[in-house]
Specification:
333 residues; 2 domains; globular; peptidase activity
């Protein structure tokens, strides 16, 4: 009974964490018009890819280590350093490539390709973390061991896997835009090699620090992977700065055309950051926040309209709702 309970807790905890990281990538580019159910399917595809990665790794390392190799890194250092990143990032790339072949249009946008790559990687990591939580946490040390692995592997290490997946998605989108076939292959392989190199450096740092400091590789990996959180923060800042720039330009255009008063535009500018952060967990979501979100969406859609005329109908519907909310702001003021 306790073993079944432990496995259930590990599975639920890992899947919930995976969904949170997947939602983060969806929130980053909230205004792209992919359906939420489609991202759910992509997350599920990442779960399948994670299972195959563990099974394939079992052919290259001892079977009892394959499902929690990082916790056994000091026993098979070369395989942990070189083989594990190749298997994980290689199968992750194949999973993302399969989605790209089905949805080529979505991979025409670099940011949208990053979403798909990050969501697939979140599902990929969720499956791996189930085994780590159970085999490296629950079985040897019960709740305490599981909590330690959850903090160091699932939370601290969450962005390392997902950002690598997002980078692979962006690499495939960039490669797809190249005019010649050999250029596409060259770009994809070169950029994938960069992601693989990052994982090798990361695993090398885990091995070195584990040997020098005497801590378990999983704990040390949590410290090393903390750098990925810094990268994630920088990515958020860069995307929000870019989005705010297009948001302000669109507001200025609306003011010049007489559709928005200057005081209304100033109010929307002041509420941009609180509204943008609030949609991560849409609680207390008032009309002003909704107007900010729609304005940002209109700015993005206006830029994409020339390359994707099919979105013109969506653009008109969003404009109508935005105009209605602006009129409510006018009445409120």
């Amino acid at each position: 009974m306790s073993e079944a309970l432990g496995l259930l807790i590990c599975t639920v905890g890992s899947l919930l964490a995976g969904v949170c990281f997947a939602w983060f990538f969806y929130w980053l580019e909230r205004y792209r018009w992919q359906e939420t159910y489609l991202l759910g399917c992509v997350f599920g595809w990442g779960l399948v890819a994670g299972v195959f990665a563990n099974l394939f790794l079992g052919l290259l390392v001892p079977w009892n280590m394959a499902f929690h190799l990082e916790s056994q890194a000091l026993e098979v250092p070369r395989r942990f350093l070189l083989v594990a990143p190749a298997v994980e990032e290689g199968l992750k790339a194949l999973a993302i490539l399969a989605v790209m072949l089905m949805f080529r249009k979505q991979f025409g946008y670099l940011s949208e390709a990053m979403i798909y790559g990050g969501v697939i990687a979140a599902g990929f990591a969720a499956i791996q973390n189930v085994f780590y939580l159970y085999l490296a946490g629950w079985q040897p040390a019960g709740y305490g061991g599981m909590a330690s692995v959850f903090v160091n592997r699932v939370v601290a290490g969450g962005f390392m896997t997902t950002l690598c997946g997002a980078a692979i998605g962006a690499a495939l989108a960039w490669a797809q835009s190249r005019p010649k076939l050999w250029q596409r292959w060259h770009t994809a392989i070169t950029l994938w090699s960069g992601v693989y190199g990052v994982r090798v450096l990361r695993n090398g740092a885990v091995l070195l620090l584990s040997e020098r400091m005497g801590y378990s590789p999983v704990s040390v990996a949590g410290w090393v992977d903390g750098l990925a959180w810094l990268v994630a923060v920088l990515v958020v800042i860069a995307i929000l700065r870019r989005e705010y720039g297009s948001f302000v330009r669109y507001l200025e255009e609306q003011v010049r055309e007489g559709r928005i008063r200057p005081d209304q535009a100033a109010l929307l500018r002041r509420r941009f950051l609180p509204a943008r952060l609030r949609i991560f967990l849409p609680i207390n979501y008032d009309a002003t926040c909704r107007a900010v979100v729609l304005c940002s969406e209109l700015a993005l859609r206006q830029a994409a309209l020339s390359s994707d005329p099919d979105t013109s109908g969506i653009q008109q519907r969003v404009q109508q709702e935005f105009a209605r909310l602006v009129s409510q702001l006018s009445q409120a003021s």
